[in-house]
Each structure stands twice: as structure tokens, then as C-alpha cells.
Design a protein that fits this description.
By secondary structure, the protein is an alpha/beta fold. It has 10 helices and 9 strands.
């Protein structure tokens, strides 16, 4: 039996819904989502198995004009991914409209040479007129094989997009064992889930200053998963916000994260969170390396 397989980069400017789309295509949560730009900080792989084919979707950080060392690193991650894939999904936001940021992504993406399918996302929010305008605009900035309107949030158009991707995969091996959903190590995924819950509560510059690292991940003999994670921020004032009055905010984050981890992992979880200051970590190469955000 011939097997199709390949790697697909999911790219676009910040906040166009790339992670939500990857989760919808794979059929389960492999990437955290947030209304905050720059939620994704690494290349996250989500694996789709269908009869006779395996597709590895690579969710990438939003491609943007960087202002920090972290921002430059995130753009490097995107360029590295799209330079070595079988197909790229270029995602734009129909509700927000197609602008200069999308044009910058399109120009650099096409220079990399991968075949492109353009995904016009958030059609549920854009309506017919907004969707038509976005389709017309994006056709003027990228030469794609297909232009597919979807709503990653509601699932509209996702099945069609999935089929179009699968039929474009070349013959190849199964890169992961059947049933594998992601290649993210559990401790990394857990840290990202904690960060997702924090992002939902933070405002202004604080979301960009939050990083989470799993310090200990212990599978105990009694079946309980014991997790110790550290939440890093850049200033003492941010630490106070993350902790909240009387520890209320970090407690609520811990409860929400623990409940979701238990649901996803199917076991009891004890989650312990600490908050520490790592001054200006977004701008320091050594700090980025220690936090696992650069090599």
C-alpha cells in the first residue's frame, strides 16, 4: 500500500488563528491558543493520521517586525520551518483584513519556494462581504495553489482544507507511530498550558513578559502526576500581578491548568506553581537559552 506523508508549515502574521487551525486540522489540542499576539513561541508539531497518509502540521510563531531578541528568534524559527516543508499554509484573518504585515509574510514565504495554499480564516466573524474582500486582497499578494475560506473556530471549511493538504503529500514513510498527536514532550506541553491560562488573565505588556518552565515532572507510584513549574516575569511589578491579591490569580491559574491536564492526560495531577523574576529575559540571549526559547 502506498503511503503519503509530509510536513506542512502553518504560517502568517500574529493572531490570525494559526494554532486554532492546527488544533482543528489534527482533531485535538496540540497547541495553546490565546487572543494575545505572539502566543506561539516555538515550532509545534501536530500529527494527522488518515488512511494511507500522515501529515505533520508545524504551527509557527507569528511572523512580525521584531522589537526584541526574542522577536528576532521567533522569526528565525518561522524561516527555518518554511524552508524545509512539502507545503505551506499561509493564513490570513478575514475579519481583520489583509494588510502590510500579510504582504511581508507572503513575500518572504514565496522566496522560500514551498508550494502554498492560502487559508482565509475567521470567516465566521468576517461575514460574506469581509470574506470576499479578504480573498480578493490576498490573491493580489500571494500566488497560491488554492484559496480556502475557513473558520478554524467553528470548523467550517476545515474538512475541505484537510483533504486538499492530504492529496498534495508526496509518497513517504510514517514519521511517527500511528496515534501520535504531537511530538511535544509532556513537561513542555504542561508548561504551555499553564502559560495559556495566564495569558487569559493578563493585560498590557505582561503577557509578553511571561514564560513558564516545568521544573519537575514526576510520575509517582500511586499514579499521581506531580508537576512543579516556574512562572518567569521580567519585573517585580509583573510578579505581583501574576500572583494576584492574596495569591488569588496564580491559584486560579493552577486550578484551571490542573483540571485541563487531568482531562488530557487521564490521571490525577498535583500542580505546584512558583513565580520568579528574570529581569528583561526577552532581550538577553543567555536568559532565552535557559528558558528553552533559543538554542
Amino acid at each position: 500500500m502506498t503511503t503519503r506523508s509530509g510536513f506542512v508549515a502553518v504560517v502568517g502574521r500574529p493572531n490570525v488563528g494559526k494554532s486554532t487551525l492546527v488544533n482543528a486540522l489534527v482533531g485535538g489540542k496540540v497547541a495553546i491558543t490565546s487572543a494575545r499576539p505572539q502566543t506561539t513561541r516555538s515550532a509545534v508539531r501536530g500529527i494527522l493520521d488518515v488512511p494511507g497518509a500522515q501529515v505533520v502540521f508545524v504551527d509557527t510563531p507569528g511572523y512580525h517586525k521584531p522589537r526584541t531578541l526574542l522577536g528576532r528568534h521567533l522569526n528565525d524559527v518561522v524561516r527555518a520551518v518554511w524552508s524545509d516543508v512539502d507545503l505551506a499554509l499561509f493564513v490570513v484573518d478575514a475579519a481583520a483584513g489583509v494588510g502590510r504585515g500579510d504582504g511581508r509574510v507572503a513575500e518572504d514565504l514565496q522566496a522560500a519556494g514551498a508550494p502554498v495554499i492560502c487559508v482565509v480564516n475567521k470567516v465566521d466573524a468576517a461575514g460574506k462581504a469581509g470574506t470576499a474582500a479578504a480573498l480578493a486582497a490576498v490573491a493580489g499578494i500571494v500566488d497560491a495553489e488554492e484559496y480556502v475560506p475557513v473558520s478554524a473556530l467553528t470548523g467550517r471549511g476545515v474538512g475541505l482544507l484537510r483533504d486538499l493538504v492530504v492529496e498534495r503529500m508526496p509518497e513517504g514513510p510514517m514519521y511517527y507511530p500511528p496515534g501520535t498527536r504531537t511530538d511535544q514532550p509532556p513537561p513542555v506541553f504542561v508548561a504551555e498550558l499553564v502559560r495559556e491560562k495566564l495569558l487569559a488573565r493578563m493585560r498590557d505588556e505582561v503577557p509578553h513578559s511571561v514564560a513558564v518552565v516545568t521544573d519537575d515532572y514526576i510520575e509517582r507510584d500511586d499514579g499521581v502526576l506531580e508537576i512543579h513549574a516556574i512562572v518567569y516575569v521580567e519585573r517585580d511589578s509583573q510578579k505581583a500581578i501574576v500572583i494576584g491579591r492574596g495569591g488569588a490569580t496564580i491559584k486560579e491559574v493552577g486550578i484551571e491548568a490542573r483540571e485541563e491536564i487531568e482531562t488530557l492526560f487521564g490521571r490525577r495531577v498535583h500542580l505546584f506553581l512558583r513565580v520568579k523574576v528574570e529581569k528583561d529575559w526577552q532581550r538577553r540571549a543567555h536568559a532565552l537559552q535557559r528558558l528553552g526559547l533559543a538554542t
